[in-house]
Every structure is written in C-alpha cells, then in structure tokens.
Design a protein that fits this description.
mainly alpha; 14 helices; 289 residues; 0% strand
C-alpha cells in the first residue's frame, strides 16, 4: 500500500499521459533520442499537472467523496491526508510542472496553462453540467496529444485528433454508466450532472460512439493519404485489435459493470492488455520495419 500522500497524487492515472507520445510515434520520430527525451519530460510535466488537479479535485469533493462506497477511501475524504497538506501538494506539483516547461519546453507553456485552466473550470463547475462534463474530459486527451505534437515540433494529423477524442469519449461514457448504476442502485449522488443521465441514454450513447469510433478507425486504416504517409498498405491489419478492444470494454461495461475506472481496467484486464500490445506491435512493424 502506497503512503497516503502518494496515493493522493494518483500515480496510476499518469498512464493517461502516454498520449503525448502518439505524435512522435506516428511521425516516425520515435527513434530520435532528443525528441524522445523531450517528450518523456512532457509526460512528466502532464503527470505533475494531473496530480495537482487530482489534489484540487479531492479537496473540493471531499464531502461528496465521503459518501461514495469507493471514493471514501481517498486520502483526503478518509482523513488520511489533511486539507492543508493537499493544498501544499497541489501547489508544489503545479509549480514544478510550469517550471520544467519554462526551462525545457517553453513553447508548451500556453497549452499547459490552458490545460490547467480548463481543469480548474471542470473541477469547480463544468463537471456538474451534463454532456459538457464528458466533452471536456475527452478534450483533455486531445490536449495531451497536442502537447506531444508541440514538443516534437510535429503537425498532428486530423485522424489522430479525431480518433483520440472519440476513444476518450467512449471511455468517459463507460465511467458515467458506472456513476448512473451507482446512483440507481444505492441512491448515492456522485455529482449533480449525473442526475440528467439515465441508463437507457448512456447505453445508447455508448453504442453510438463505439460505432462511430470503429467506422472512423476503419476509414483511417483504408485512407490512401495514410497509406502514402506511412508507406504501407497494411494499416487495416490493426483494426482487429481496435474492434476486439472496444467489444471487450463494452462487455466489461454492460455485462460485468466494471467500467468505473478505465485505468483499473487497463492494469487488470489481460484481454485489453493483449489488444493494446497487439495494436502497438503491429503498428511498430508497419511504421518502423
């Protein structure tokens, strides 16, 4: 078990920041050690920023979290970490992230400030507005991709932006379904915005976004522009891993009701891990072989 102050920073959630590496990977610059090092630093910067936001979120939500069957175990909600210590951790992470940015990747500063500002707005207000909450969270993933593009001096393709947004929205919908199930079964109000969702709406939205995501990915794999840029006509081979991964996540969400934490699914579900590994290795061969 990690110490409470470390758990407050949620290091497992840092895995979301691997999205900063995508522009470098798809632009065939993953073997450039200088850019890879800068992008790794970008990963650290966004991880520190995320930890600052988690601290802020846990401070603001400590009373509501105390009523939640799972979130009540969070360090601040449980009393393991004081509110004042939470503020110190929040400020330290935010200042360190901005300091590293100004020192090594100054071009990233405005995007990072925008990311911080949007996260604060989300914690204070936007997460309580239905639909807006999900769209904002999905946009955080796109901002990570754009951060990686800025760091590597890369112009991101429309495909990487669209696919990142759709996949993130799909994952967020799964999480919202878990919130709706919890509210329906126990009467616990996770957040005000969830009151405007019901199971039928979320299930329909999941189906819609999953379908659009799969169709968009198939269009991407069969695009002549993509085949020409990657100098390979076998990109469509990666679609089987995407389809399998989405179906498995739908199964976990709708059948097993285990979509409350996408990060937990990533670390625990072997099927999802194999899909990600297969997708990555196949693309690695397609791009760099």
């Amino acid at each position: 078990m990690l110490p409470p102050i470390i758990r407050l920073l949620r290091p497992k959630q840092w895995s979301k920041n691997v999205f900063v590496f995508l522009p470098l990977f798809f632009d065939k610059k993953f073997t450039d050690m200088r850019l890879l090092g800068l992008t790794a630093l970008c990963f650290v910067i966004f991880s520190l920023t995320a930890s600052a936001v988690y601290c802020l979120n846990d401070i603001l939500d400590r009373k509501a979290d105390a009523l939640h069957p799972e979130k009540c175990k969070r360090p601040i909600a449980s009393g393991a970490v004081s509110v004042s210590a939470g503020w110190i951790a929040c400020g330290a992470c935010a200042l360190l992230a901005m300091g590293l940015t100004l020192w090594q990747i100054p071009d990233l500063k405005w995007l990072l400030l925008g990311y911080m500002a949007l996260n604060i707005a989300y914690s204070l207000l936007l997460k309580h507005i239905s639909l807006v909450d999900m769209l904002v969270v999905a946009s955080f993933y796109v901002m990570r991709v754009l951060a990686g593009a800025i760091t590597g001096d890369i112009v991101p393709s429309q495909w990487i932006v669209v696919m990142t947004f759709l996949l993130a929205l799909f994952l967020v919908l799964g999480k919202r379904r878990d919130d709706v199930m919890l509210q329906t079964e126990t009467g616990t109000t996770v957040r005000r915005g969830v009151a405007n969702y019901n199971l039928q709406f979320v299930n329909m939205s999941l189906t819609l976004v999953a379908t659009v995501t799969i169709v968009a990915y198939m269009m991407y794999t069969m695009s002549e522009q993509v085949a020409k840029r990657l100098d390979n006509h076998y990109v469509y081979c990666t679609a089987v891993f995407v389809l399998a991964g989405i179906l498995r996540y739908l199964q976990l969400t709708v059948v097993e009701n285990r979509s409350g934490s996408p990060t937990r699914v990533l670390f625990r579900d072997r099927f999802i891990q194999l899909c990600l590994l297969g997708w990555f290795v196949t693309f690695l061969l397609i791009i760099y072989w």
